Amino acid sequence: MPRLYLAGATLEDLSKTPQAFLSAQNITINSNGTIVNSGTITSQDDTHITASNITNQNGVMTGNNINLNAQKHPP
Length: 75
Fold this sequence. Notes:
By secondary structure, this protein is mainly beta. 11% of the residues lie in helices and 47% in strands. It has one domain (8-70).
């Protein structure tokens, strides 16, 4: 399964983009920080997202199986 590793500065730049579109057969995102989705994340099979916090701000997540795992609760 292909994996995409991004530097912290790249992740910060991506968080400034109001709309993004991520599409693949399977998607796995692992972060020690916060994931904020305001765009579209769509997989044909499985989407797995693990982060300290996961926020979906008017974003769309679609897939056959979506697994979200957040270790912390927002204040």
